Amino acid sequence: MLCFTEHWLNCHKIHAININNFTLANAFCRKNSDNGGSCIFVEQGVMKKELNSLNGLGEEKSFELSVIELVVRYAFIVIRICRSPDGKIDTFFNKLEMTMQKLTVKHKTLILCGDWNINFLQTSPHTRELNNLLLWYNLKHTVNVPNRITKTTATLLDVVTTNDENLSHYLTNLMHKICFILFHASTCFEHMCSSSGGQNCITHPLVSSHL
């Protein structure tokens, strides 16, 4: 499974992306502004199911939602959300709450991840509210180290959570080994689409995780 934020592609270009042995399962593309977006690719042959109950819940900049239900050894739901720095924080929290209310009644394993532009290494009203919401739905962090590091700053903006205890331990160990498996795709995707004129864009998975 490959999850991306910031793919920067419109609906036409995202469907032209070809990752060897993977297929596009779900995507959010902006229509009224540039950049942004989220998407999920799954390995070919994996059973997947769209969740129509969440159709229309995504919103540009504030709640860019991709979601899919997969069946491998057991059924689980993957939720990938991108929130821009100028996205409405109240809208993000409200829609996240709505999403969790709709999904928890299914009693499935959940993997909630994304770039929400909330730094979990700092204590703030936003981190407290978000941690309380995650705790309410029994979602545990699997990333506890910085994943945006510069010469002067270290932040934890990219988040992976799950309500499955065993999967939580597995993902935590995996994150420590490779630091982060869910990444921004804009540079890779835009380069491939530009070089091919948007037709038959081809790229390759940089990192993959098999669940």
Question: How would you characterize this protein structure?
Answer:
The structure is a single chain. The protein is of the alpha+beta class and about 210 residues long. It has one domain (about 1-205): Deoxyribonuclease I, Chain A (4-Layer Sandwich). Helix content is about 25%, strand content about 30%. It has 5 helices and 14 strands. The chain has helices at about 10-15, 90-105, 125-135, 165-180, 185-195, and strands spanning about 1-5, 20, 20-30, 40-45, 45-50, 65-70, 75-80, 110-115, 140, 150, 155, 160, 185, 200-205. A hairpin with a 4-residue loop joins strand 10 (about 150) and strand 11. The chain is globular and about 40 Å long. About 35% of the residues are buried.
Short description:
The protein has 211 residues and is an alpha+beta fold. The protein is built from five helices and 14 strands. It has one domain (2-203): Endonuclease/exonuclease/phosphatase (Deoxyribonuclease I, Chain A, 4-Layer Sandwich), CATH 3.60.10.
Detail the poorly predicted runs: 176-182, 202-211
* Strand count: 14
> Which band does the percent of strand residues land in?
25-35%
Q: What number of structural domains do the residues give?
A: 1
SS element count, helices: 5
* Order of strands across the main sheet: 5-6-7-8-12-9
Question: Which structural class do the helices and strands define?
Answer: alpha+beta
**Largest beta sheet, briefly?**
6 strands, mixed
List the helices and strands and how they pair.
Blueprint: E1 2-5, H1 11-14, E2 18-19, E3 22-28, E4 38-43, E5 47-49, E6 64-71, E7 75-82, H2 89-104, E8 109-115, H3 125-136, E9 140-141, E10 148-149, E11 154-155, E12 158-162, H4 165-178, E13 183-184, H5 186-195, E14 202-203
Parallel strand pairs: 1-13, 2-14, 7-8
Antiparallel strand pairs: 1-4, 3-4, 5-6, 6-7, 8-12, 9-12, 10-11
